Amino acid sequence: MKVKQKLWIENVEQFQLSKLNKYINKFEKLKDDGYIAANIKFEDRIWRVKIIGVELNLNFLNNIELMNASKELKISQDFIDSSIKSFLLDYIENTSQGNIKIKLNYLKSLINRELIERYALSVNVYDFTFFCKFNDFIGGICSEYIESITEYAVERDYKNKKIPSFVSVFKFDDVIEEFYRRNKNNIKVLLKWYPIIVWWKLTSVIPLRPSELINMDRLCIDEINGEYFIIVKRSLGKISGFKLVNSSNENECYYNDKINIDEKMYKFLKKYIKDMENYGGKYLFSKELYMSYNLIQPNLNKNKFTVANLTYLLNRFYDDFIQHKKGYVICNRYEKPFETLEEKEIERLSLYDSRHIAIINAIFLGYDIQTVQRLARHKVVNTTYGYFRHEHEYAKSFALSFSKKMLHKNDLKKIPNIKRSHNHGRLLASVVLGIDDVISVNRKDFKSCGGYCEYNTNKDILFCMKYLPNHVLCPKFIPYDEDVQIGQAEKKLENCIKVLCDIVKDRETIANFDEKMSIQRDAMLNNTYELAHLLAKKEK
């Protein structure tokens, strides 16, 4: 597949209506290349464009908006309309379908006072280059409005991904798994939500962007000599320094990437493909099936399931199933700290969250950093390392989720009430406390990690030995104060992850980096499971 050096077309001169033909010629070239529909004219209020194989409408200012803007800016309506369209031409072939609509909304907000507050809160400092460039292009007539937007602007740190609370992630995962388990043989029920099930199961394991997922071929799995593979799509547009030859054609936008998967994933996708055999189309998801459930006849993308369709289904799944059938209350993201979310409260995930979750999960499970980098298709390893900052919250949320699963599945023995018994395994005491004189150890003096053990068989420590050195995990262990124990476990986990992040930070100067990473990651997992057991005990 051809790629060429990325060359952004910069508007270095000020826009003039007398030179409009220059931009109309550019417009006609984009039509010839397939970016703009053949029947669209430059002066039309709505442009139908095609970016990365997806059709969308660009809605420019209507007559009333143009009239109001003309009065406000004291400049002609033709100038305002033509300058916005001319400026946007460069971006049609150099950005994604989502970004082009955002940029158009930003341009409209610059010349429409009523729109400023609506869009300004989503603006970050990196957008000001775009704003200032447009302002220069039209002769500085929007300077006052740019100053107004700076009052609302929010600086966004791209190094710190905005992701949902992991408590909500694990709750969502439980809902998906339960739904699929109960309905996997009920095809009528399953088909409606199949795209959401596939999206989650696949992209929370393999870091894929939504656009990459929907462009996958349906026949995407293979078995070779007992190994299982999946062929996913990767975006060429994410290769730094290169630009697609023609991004209006999806065949020019992606390349195939063959990845090992486990047997469980292979069987799941094999069943999905079989269940979909009555619905045509080469892509992973069927537009025909989507339309049959949503009773719509779209004007755009009649044969292509889009990211917008998948987003709509995800929101419907939250509203129709998670909220109305499962009884969850859906909270706004960051509305409250994840520790304070009630049992039946959950944040709404977006399609893009699963990619970040897959990366963090891979790190947590101990994949070496180069493997995670390759799976995520990060150009530089520093991008992958940036996800380590989320490991503490992820580990705590995992512990909380795991503790509830243990309680639900009754994996823990019933925790006994604190009571006064006369005997304790003295040999166990000597091992834990390092005391030679085991006879002198009295029950009331025995301490182990801030509590004592209720296991009463004298001279028998086999039951407890398997929990050492973390005797706190023993089902018979009674902490003096459960909240103190949980606090200590959380602090230990926090310190463990801090050390892990320090190792990552100093990776260039640390000898035996991989070995130390492995040891510290094992410690993180052990501390996480310890915290999970403590949380489960408290709930008992």
Automatic annotation (TrEMBL):
Biological process (GO), any one: DNA recombination
Superkingdom assignment: Bacteria
A molecular function GO annotation: DNA binding
Keywords associated with the record: DNA recombination
Name this protein carries in UniProt: Phage integrase family protein
Gene source species: Clostridium beijerinckii (Clostridium MP)
